[in-house]
Amino acid sequence: MPPPQYVPLQFQPGVWKNGTLYQAQGRWYDADLMRWSVGALGPIGGWRAWGESTTAVTGVPRTALSWMDNSNNRWLAAGSASKLFVYDSGATRYDITPAGFVAGSTDADPNTGYGDWLYGKSNYGTVRPDLGVPSPATIWALDLWGEDLVGCTPDDGKIYLWDTSVGTGTVAAQLANSPTKVISTAVTPERIQMAFGGRFSTDPQDRRKVFWSDSEDNTDWTASATNQAGGHTFDSKGDLLGAVKVRGKMLIFTTDDAHTATYVGLPYVYAFDRVGDNCGPVSVNAVAVAGNTAYWMGRSANGFFQYDGYVRSIPCDVEDYIITQMNEAQSSKVVAWHNALFSEVVWFYPGTGTEVDAYISYNYEEQHWAVGTMARTAVTSRGIFAQPILFDASGNPYEHEVGGVYQDTGEDALVPYVESGPIQLGDGDRVLSATHLIPDVSALGDIKTTFYTRLYPTDSDTTHGPYTMAAPTSVRFTGRTVRMKCTSESANAWRVGIPRLEMQPGGRR
User: What local confidence, expressed as pLDDT, does residue 432 receive?
Assistant: First the structure.
């Protein structure tokens, strides 16, 4: 009998889903709740409810922001289409919704379905063409004016400020003298309040115009020779969405392009430059800043982008998968999260249903991708609080990266897994028989492995296992190609390295 062959089950980091399963040779093809970091493959950190008696947000939270006030008190704000709340460091919730606030929409309306076009046009039961005026889900824009919270929604259109020093006995109030019909707002590094879109008094709304207040005074919006208030109209095909701070500038987005606002002082105050075309994000919440770089998901499945002084397209190994999986009509709900500990940007998006239920992540240091299922609609990063705090669609907040439990309130537990593309056994013209698996894992008893074999690329899989990993693990299967799936319901952290299969050559057939 010829000596056995040892086939290493080695795969590149990250998930690849841009073609057929057979094209994914040597790659991981599917995963859930898994990450690759510094050469290690294992499950992401789990989560737990934040606070012992936490009260959920009313409505679906779409935006969250954490900060510390001048007295070292920690706060977390969360806004839904109808409400604005703050939590203190003890996870006690307070309603600070402004008086007279006009509620928006929990869901987007593409306005291309039944009842949204002319009577008698198109055929019953078929998708209507894109001839309506889509309405996005309501998204809060939240920022800080010093220690105070400022924000707005495009449906209500007013900029509000919540004075932290007054405390939780007061609600947010409209910012004096500020414009109305505002789409979004942000505070610049120069302590100037920007309002995107909007108008003063009864002037027509200009959805391509940005207004800004005087420096250090966000109640003075009237431009004069003695202050820095002003305005600018963008030459753009799209509507303004909002802005983020990056590289000491404001990176401003429309639905079509990206611009920078660079502070130059009087008399112009800001210099504006177009830095990208056909790169508008699906929503202003779909942009995350990591260090000196902004990352975002493009509109209409138009890929992923980054700005590091220049706008660049990011090659994506799972872009085809996202195009087919994402509910484009509800894409305004996409929210990006920067998980700094693992150099990841994560986009939570609506998949099969109308609400957010899945994610795609990008490791920007190692430049690989992962996919999975998780319903998170509003996010904060670690820093103010010890762990990132993320909200589900029911308004419940969770601390993340805190162990191996993957379960939301009232939901079944999720199970992390990773599944490879095929590895060819032998030289392709010979059938090989596996007898043993030589594992390379951190904890043998925590992981189960299933193998899928085929004789030809278009065959159906033959399933073998699952096998609980031992040293070595006795297996029995035959094929020309093999795929591997690893899963674990253990709360313990586990890692997979490069296991090997002990193979015996078979006949050619």
Answer: 76
